[in-house]
Each structure stands twice: as C-alpha cells, then as structure tokens.
Design a protein that fits this description.
Layout: E1 9-13, H1 19-29, H2 33-42, H3 45-61, H4 65-83, H5 86-91, H6 97-104, E2 112-113, H7 116-121, H8 136-142, H9 150-156, E3 158-164, E4 167-174, E5 182-190, H10 199-213, E6 218-224, H11 228-236, E7 240-241, H12 250-256, E8 269-275
Parallel strand pairs: 5-6
Antiparallel strand pairs: 1-2, 1-3, 3-4, 4-5, 6-8, 7-8
Helix pairs in contact: 1-6, 3-4
Length: 276
Amino acid sequence: MVKLELDQVVMRRMREDDIEIVKALIKEGCEGTENRLILHVLTRPLCLFILAILSSILRCLVHSFILALAIPVFLLIVFLKITMPRATGVLGTSRPYWDYVGSSYRGTQEETLPNPYCKISGKTPVIKKPRRRIRPKEKEKEMPTEKIDPEREQAAGQVWLADCDGEIVGCVCRESEKRGGIRRICRVVVGCWYRREGLGRLLVQSLEHREGEAGAHRVYTHVPYPSKVGEAFFRKLGYRLLGEGTDEGEDEEEKLETPERGFLGFPLTKVFYKDL
C-alpha cells in the first residue's frame, strides 16, 4: 500500500488515450468476482438439491461415485461461465465494459470534479502532461469522425478518473441517464496499491455532489451479492439496501430498479440507494 495525498488527486473525465489503462484497472478490480458469484449460486439449497438428483441419475450410468458427483458440478460451472451476465452481475452495468469504456470518453474531456481536500490544504493539484506529444497530422487522424450530440453523450455514460501526479489510481463510472433525476454508479475501482486511503470515498462523494447540482435526487448502485467489502463501503457512505426503508413510493422504485438475477432466479447483485 502506497501513501496517497488526496489533496493532490485530480478527478477528470477519461480521455481517449486512457481507455486501455482504465480497462486494465477495471479488470483488476473485478478479478475473482465472477468466481465468487458462481460459488454463491452453487451453494444455494435448490441448486444443491438439483445437483444431488443429477448425481444420483449418473450414479446408475457411471460406475464411479466421484465422476457422478464431479460431472454435474463441472457442467453447471461451464454453463454459468457462459450464460452469467458478466457485465451486469460482475461489473454492475448491462453494457460490456469494453463497449462502455470505449464510448464514455466522448464528452467534455477537460471537465473535472471538485476535490474538497484541496480547500482544506490550500494546495492546487497539477496533472502532468503526457510524455509523448502528438503531431498535428497524427492528431487529425486520431480524432473521432463521429459527431457527438447530447443524446449520444447521454447514452454513453461517464467515466471519471483519479489522476495523481500523472498516474491513474482509480475510477468511478456512472451509467447513462435512463430516468430523470436518477443516477446509477456502476463501478468504483481503486488501484491495489492505493486502497484504504479514502480514494474510493472521495470519488463517490465528488460524483454525488456534481450529480446533485445537476438535478439528480437519488443515486443507485449494484453490489455483487457475495461482496461484503463493497456492501460495507457503500453503507459507510450513507447508502441503504433497497427494501430496508419505509419511504413512500419505494414500491415503485423496487419495480424500476431490481437486483440482477442469474441461474434459477438467484440474485446476483444487491441494490443500494442514497437520496441526495
């Protein structure tokens, strides 16, 4: 773990040349989540009952107790690997991460989120310029030819990066605006060397502040079901599990924002929300 000065962190929009770094960061942050979800599904009572029935049937055909037990489990794991909604259950959004990240840089790239730690320390963070300078001709070739209109930008969502001294140390991803006044955080990832320093809290709270000023009144986030760390993290930030409160109109919200489900209808995510 590396000591991180939060007042030197700049939270900026992702640029086109950041895409590969962000994809690697998200992949690192989600490593092992899919396997934990599969283990969660395999240990449900109904799933164990079905596996026991299949093993009993195979026991009559295969003269090996180990094979009769292992074959159904192996086939079910392969089935879950193929059919499990990776983007939804693991990453928290219905769009694949490579498509989502690839389309999210097409916004106002110089936009930044306010850092409250800068007001406390009085320091101004500085973003280092990239080492490689792009020549004018190369820049014209690399500029996207697609015309970006407000509808396209709204559908793409947003990716905000935590940039410290020229190094990307974390990111928070906000999904596209599907309902008025409602926002959805689909990913919060912090580099493995910079965890437990308050960076994730800084990213989420800064994004909440910006969305609140833009007119949002509620923020949702989906946490993978077996993730106790993710659940504790959002609870500390004031999020509540959908269904715990007694607010009026909560039944309507439950219909619009429901947990993602997988094999046999088992829930893969927990839905948390916070009123701004």
